[in-house]
Design goal:
Elements lengths: L5 H13 L4 E6 L11 E6 L4 E7 L2 H13 L10 E3 L21 H7 L4 E3 L1 E3 L2 E3 L15 H9 L1
Parallel strand pairs: 4-5
Antiparallel strand pairs: 1-2, 2-3, 6-7
């Protein structure tokens, strides 16, 4: 029997929705095997990409892994800091996958090297940013809504 952590599942689903994904799917690949061996996966569908975490022992582990993958290499939309998932800080390498399916270039990694970092953590059923309650930093470039409006023209 698989232990379900409802808070982790809710937090992952909430985070996927906050990233702008168009869908979330959690399932397993193998039938007629113990649940822990079923090859659980979770994927988020975006406009042009699908981000997947697969081959986990249960749905909670798959959802949690997907949430961590979506946060890794991302930037906080509030303070524009690079998201860190541990006190050791965030790391991004050229070629690392971003949420939109693209990869970080060497030039982009160099530009963000000195950016502040924002420590995200899961608290109960929600992922919380480290800059919670702080005044937002001004954006260094066009935000998502501005880029979307430009594409529609």
């Amino acid at each position: 029997m698989i232990d379900m952590d409802d808070d982790a599942l809710i937090a992952a689903a909430d985070l996927v929705g906050r990233t702008g994904a168009r869908g979330l799917e959690i399932g397993h690949l193998h039938d007629d095997v113990p649940a822990e061996e079923a090859g659980w996966y979770a994927h988020a569908q975006f406009r042009g990409a699908r981000i997947t975490e697969e081959d986990h022992r249960g749905p909670t582990e798959a959802a949690e892994a997907l949430a961590r993958r979506l946060l890794t290499g991302s930037m906080c939309t509030h303070c524009h800091g690079l998201i860190a998932l541990s006190d050791e800080g965030a790391t991004v390498y050229p070629g690392s996958l971003r949420t939109d399916g693209s990869v970080w270039t060497a030039e982009e990694v160099e530009k963000i090297r000195d950016r502040p970092q924002c420590r995200y953590r899961r608290m109960g059923n929600r992922w919380v940013r480290g800059c919670e309650g702080q005044t937002p930093r001004p954006s260094t470039g066009p935000n998502r809504a501005t880029r979307r409006a430009r594409r529609r023209r």
